[in-house]
């Protein structure tokens, strides 16, 4: 592991048009992975358009990796069913954070960079990385792979690493 880049806060906002894995619905939850770190949202019962609004935190180290997420349907008596997966390169938000430091942007709202859908991410549409009152933030909609339908909305915030003593 290299130098700390900062604290990554991933807010799992909501899901939309998730696939049915039980009789008429699903009981979805999301697992988010960054390197060897893993975090999980709560289960939302009987819902194909769940709203989580849960914040998950990760330590971000250099070299910057890829954020992975998997959606599962919670089952009581058997293994949980897969409801899709997605990934997002964190390089754009890290590059934007470095640009913010170079430019000295700390107040107001400034768009630092735009990220377009490509093979390195599962973006549904273009996403902006902005500096909002000193925080570097990216709002994204990710298309779930390996399933017929489904999208997950995340808000990613990169907090500066603590200053060395």
Automatic annotation (TrEMBL):
<keyword id="KW-1003">Cell membrane</keyword>
<dbReference type="Pfam" id="PF00168">
    <property type="entry name" value="C2"/>
</dbReference>
<dbReference type="InterPro" id="IPR035892">
    <property type="entry name" value="C2_domain_sf"/>
</dbReference>
<dbReference type="GO" id="GO:0008289">
    <property type="term" value="F:lipid binding"/>
</dbReference>
<keyword id="KW-0539">Nucleus</keyword>
<dbReference type="GO" id="GO:0009738">
    <property type="term" value="P:abscisic acid-activated signaling pathway"/>
</dbReference>
<keyword id="KW-0472">Membrane</keyword>
<dbReference type="InterPro" id="IPR000008">
    <property type="entry name" value="C2_dom"/>
</dbReference>
<dbReference type="GO" id="GO:0005634">
    <property type="term" value="C:nucleus"/>
</dbReference>
<comment type="similarity">
    <text>Belongs to the plant CAR protein family.</text>
</comment>
<dbReference type="GO" id="GO:0005096">
    <property type="term" value="F:GTPase activator activity"/>
</dbReference>
<keyword id="KW-0479">Metal-binding</keyword>
<keyword id="KW-0938">Abscisic acid signaling pathway</keyword>
<dbReference type="InterPro" id="IPR044562">
    <property type="entry name" value="CAR1-11"/>
</dbReference>
<keyword id="KW-0343">GTPase activation</keyword>
<keyword id="KW-0446">Lipid-binding</keyword>
<feature type="domain" description="C2">
    <location>
        <begin position="1"/>
        <end position="103"/>
    </location>
</feature>
<dbReference type="GO" id="GO:0046872">
    <property type="term" value="F:metal ion binding"/>
</dbReference>
<protein>
    <recommendedName>
        <fullName>C2 domain-containing protein</fullName>
    </recommendedName>
</protein>
<dbReference type="GO" id="GO:0005886">
    <property type="term" value="C:plasma membrane"/>
</dbReference>
<keyword id="KW-0106">Calcium</keyword>
